[in-house]
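Mods, move this if it's the wrong board.
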Amino acid sequence: YSPSAFDCVIFADVVEHLVNPLEVLKKVNKVLKDDGTVIMSIPNVQFFGVVHQLIEGNWTYQKEGILDETHLRFFTFKEIEKLVKEAGLYIQRIEETLDPQYEKFASEKHTTLQLGRVSINDLTPDEIRRFFVFQYKIVAGKVRVQSKDQIESSNDNRNIFMENLLNEAQSIFDKADYETALNKYEKIQELNSDSSEALVGMGNCYMRLQNPEKAEACFIRAKTHDQNNFKAWLGLGLLELYRANTKQAEIYLIRVVELNPESDKAFCALGILKANTNDLKAAEEYYCRALDLNIENLLANKSLIELSYVTENYSAAYKYLKSFLDIYPANLNMLFVMAGLQFKMGRVEDSLKTLDDVLFIDPNHKFALEFQKSVRAVSVE
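Not the wrong board. Structure tokens:
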């Protein structure tokens, strides 16, 4: 066949039967059009049934299935990725044939897989899922060969275009228009199926729209495309925290900190996790680390203040709230909270002065007026 002869080449349960799949794919690459695709369905040898047999010392060929007696090659998802890349292709889309047992297993949020006498622990949802995939369907495209200048110019223009779209979507998200933001992220993902940033954005939108299942799917896909995308791990951590799955949430959040030690959101989430498990000392330490990184993290500020009322140790909360008010001296809510902290610390005159500041900005602040009367009564006593 001549170069660029085919729009699409299909390997329907074929690759695993070949003596040298890589050489075959390289030859197919040469006769594929630049915008052509290769479609492959490939059994997953990591399937739990096969692994269970191997644990028991068996590798028994059968008339059909993953251990079909005519199969010469065996693949996990990672090996499929390597095969595609080495053949000069890239994965455009992945579909999975899942064992029906996965749905029940996933709904129970397991982190451990028991296979006969062997237990595999601390698995992420994505890692567990791969044990239940019977077959992968891969749609791959051709990596185009360009000159260095063409590649740099094309990449620069594409990166700028994608960055602008992502910024636009984030701006819409920040305005709490989650449906519109979701639509924007979906369009970005259609343009670039490998955009982990778009997938994370979709996951965040689904979280705000109270759809944790779809959010989880997006975060897992983002992590699959880019294992170092700390935002994807953060999304999964926050999702498990929302589900009160403390152990798994902590695994994900620690991973975020490993990838990005300056993630104030991860430290704040770890603080909330520790507070929920009544480890109040660790909670305070995490909140403080979050605020050392970003004093404008309102959730960390508020959480630390709430914690101080429980422990009756107000020094850390006072320190960080004061730093926040040095930047935003007219923030009424936080000024009012400061007055409460000062009162709890026995600094009655400071509390009254702060309340005067609140009422100077908003003379009709109902709660400040009521609290002022109470503080003055204590001051007179």
